[in-house]
Structures are given as structure tokens and as C-alpha cells.
Automatic annotation (TrEMBL):
<dbReference type="Pfam" id="PF00743">
    <property type="entry name" value="FMO-like"/>
</dbReference>
<keyword id="KW-0560">Oxidoreductase</keyword>
<keyword id="KW-0285">Flavoprotein</keyword>
<dbReference type="InterPro" id="IPR051820">
    <property type="entry name" value="FAD-binding_MO"/>
</dbReference>
<comment type="similarity">
    <text>Belongs to the FAD-binding monooxygenase family.</text>
</comment>
<keyword id="KW-0274">FAD</keyword>
<protein>
    <submittedName>
        <fullName>NAD(P)/FAD-dependent oxidoreductase</fullName>
    </submittedName>
</protein>
<dbReference type="InterPro" id="IPR020946">
    <property type="entry name" value="Flavin_mOase-like"/>
</dbReference>
<dbReference type="Pfam" id="PF13450">
    <property type="entry name" value="NAD_binding_8"/>
</dbReference>
<keyword id="KW-0503">Monooxygenase</keyword>
Amino acid sequence: MNETVVAPEHLDVVIIGAGLSGIGAAYRLQTECRGKTYAIVEARAAMGGTWDLFRYPGIRSDSDMFTLGYPFKPWRDAESIADGTSIRRYINETAAEFGIDRHIRYSTKVIAADWSSETARWTLTLEERDAAGNVSRRELTCGFLYACAGYYDYDRGYTPEFPGLSSFSGQVVHPQFWPEDLDYTGKRVIVIGSGATAVTLVPAMAKQAERVTMLQRSPTWISAIPGRDKYADKIRELLPPNLAHRLIRTKNILFAIGFYQYCRRRPDSARKLLTGLTTRILKDEKAVAEHFTPTYNPWDQRLCAVPNADFFKAMKKDKAEVVTDHIDTFVPEGIRLKSGRILRADIVVTATGLQMLPLGGIAPRVDGQPVVLSDQFVWQGAMITGLPNFAVCVGYTNASWTLRADLSSRLVCKILNHMDRRGYAAVVPKPDGNLTEQPLLDLASGYIQRSIAEFPRQGDRHPWKVRQNYLLDSATTLRTNLTKTLTATPKSALPQPTLTTAH
């Protein structure tokens, strides 16, 4: 009996993730590597990534949309700091406008990725889920794999162990898994945490709740910013959309980099500026000193932005308060603090952070051997040593994610075109001498410190250092001499298939 063996489907490029980064990567691939076959595999049933997963009240960007948006797709909405619904719509519009949506395979999760040096291909094991919830597996091969799923764990949030939690008579919610039917109208709410999620939730929930209390162990730097950019509005009135978008984008990039450098180089001055602005809004020096003056310097951790000072306005209306203390234990009626005070609550929201996960949980193998990611270095913020024909998309921590993401996608296209011109089957970065090992992300934030040891490292010098400076990166990334910095395998060096003759 003759058996027909069907080879797996093969594509030139597979992009993992149909969020902001993945859609942007597909656009660059279509426009700069014309003719390449590709697919986007998305584990969830909808595009949007982070902006589709997180549905908690008030969710919004923490960067302006002129820089968080794509350089090739002008942001046209009025608000510079946009809500999650507007961002999802923008991503969907972009995918539809450029035909990218036809390349997305939903409910498809990459559970294994194996590289073969003999064939110069990645074999991906895919887990597919149909509308009825049935799960099946199949394989797909590709010449290049590009991970654009970010570095958060979509299946798990971070919640520390709280003593006495089971005794609490109310409801406990994590923002990452917000219940659609949660009714907090007229209820007392405690939000545990002080990061971007917490400062977003507090003013949003305060509109309907009886009172919202943000409980923090220590203060975070929070800065009020305009929800609309009046200069951008004026520029958009005077100039065509594409030109206006480029000009506004440039303005905002320069301001963000300038402010970051100011905070890092003159931390004492930055502290005075931020506390002064908050005092001007709250008109309460004691409250600012107790709740909004961190021990760390601005931008040692990511700065929390609150558009139109909505967080502070909720406090001034006495709809919200901030308590700085430590949790002793949960009690039936709420939370007892170390100070002895009891905070009463009907609902507790644990905005205690995210869980980081390298490469979306994929454990890549090369020629049958697992690659230990923490032993590897990142080159140009995109490719990883030990992983041929592989790139990862990681955005900035001090600026809009998309600025770095778009540069990485353009670099990937440059590499693919370089390989075609030179007849290369595979390329991989290799360190040039001894590198001083440093964490991939250099922030003191808890969510980073908990998991960063599992990630690849950065080095102490270019091109192995993941710089947090868009101006430098934009000037150098696409001018990289790929011949000098990547080790290549010519197609001619691959084993040739053996031809058999049937008798």
C-alpha cells in the first residue's frame, strides 16, 4: 500500500502576534520585501494584542498616539492619549486598509519552534482552536521567524500572596481578567497598586463607585499631561494629514527624549518639577510629600501619565483617595493595614502588575537542542545569538513602544533583502569579543525585576546594547553593515536533496 506524505505548508516569514507590533511588521514586510509569503499567527480570536486583551475601565495609552501609532498611518482622532477602543479600531483599520487582515490566522498558538541547520527552516508546531473549542495540532515551516507578541504573559497576571484573602466577603478582580458584568456602581473599591493600571482605574471607577481608594506600599511618580495636544490640533488644521503626522511625531519624539534625558541627568531638578506640578493641582503639600514623592528618581521606573489630571481631579472631588501603607491582612469587611486602620471594601482590584514571559512562552530548539535564552545576547535590539533567522520585537521603556518596534521591523526587512542578494540561507549574530552582561531592560520596576533573569541579555556596547534613545537608533540601525556583523550560511553550503529514481 502506497502512502502519500504531505509536506507541511511553507512560508517565507511567520510573524507571531497580531497586535500593534505584528500589524506594523506585516506592513513593512509587504512594502519592503515584496513577494515574500507570510502569515501572522495569533493565539487569541481577535487582533489587537494588549489592546484587545485588557478591557478594564478607562484603559488607555500611556504614550501619545502620534508616536505610539504607525508612521505610515496618521492618527486622526482628537485625543492624543487614546482609550483602548480607539486604539483597537486604529489597528483594525490599518490591517484592513493594507490587506494585512487576510494574512492573520486566529486562535493559532505556536507551542514549539525547531530550527534545522540542514534545511535552514523553522518547523513550528501550531495548536489551533476552532469555534467549538476543539483543539488540533499541525506543523508549518518558515524561513524566518519574527516574534511580535511582546513580553507579557497573556494567560497569567501577577498577584502576590495576600494573608487572609479567603476571609474577604467581597469580590477580588485582576485587571488583566476583568469581568464583563462587574457592577461597581455605588460600591466601595480598593485598588491595590500605584502603576499605570491603578492610576487609570481610579478616576474611571470613581465616576460610578461610592469611593475608590488606591492603596500603595510606596509612592510612584505621576504626572498630569494634556489629553489633547493643542499644538498638534493647530498643525493638523494647517497641513495635509501625512505631513502633519510626521511633523507632530517629530515634535513629540524630541520632547519625550528631552524630558527623559532631563530626568536622568538632573534628577533633583526633575523631582522638584514633578512635585511642584502635583502640588499646584492638589494644593496640599503634605499629601504630595506623603503619597506622590517616591524615594527613587524620575525614570528609574516608568513615569505614570494622567491625561487632563483626571486622577487628581477625582481626589479633589473626594471620590478617590490614596493611602500609603502596607497590608497586614484581609478581613471580611476589607483590608487591615499595618497601621491598624481598616479599609472597607465591596470590591478589591489587584493592580499588582504583569507577569513577563520571554518569546510568548516558546522554548526554541536548534538542531534538536534547547536554546537557553538567558545565555544569549540581543543584537541591535532584535536578533538573538544562537537563534538563526529569528528576530524579536521589543519596544522602548522610556518612549512609545512602536518607535523601536517599527525600526526592528525595518531592520528585519533589510536582513531578508540582504540574504536574498547574497544567496544566504541563514544568518545569526555572534558576539565580537567579550561582552559585559547586562539585563535586557534596565528599569527597577517590580514586574521587570521578577522575571528579567529569564530573558536574553544585552551587552555594554553597540550593537549589543539595547539603547533607549530613538534618535541614535534611527540614525544607525538601518545603516548597520550586515556583512560584518552577521554570520551567514550560503544556500550552496546546504546539503543537496538526493534524487531517487523509481524502477
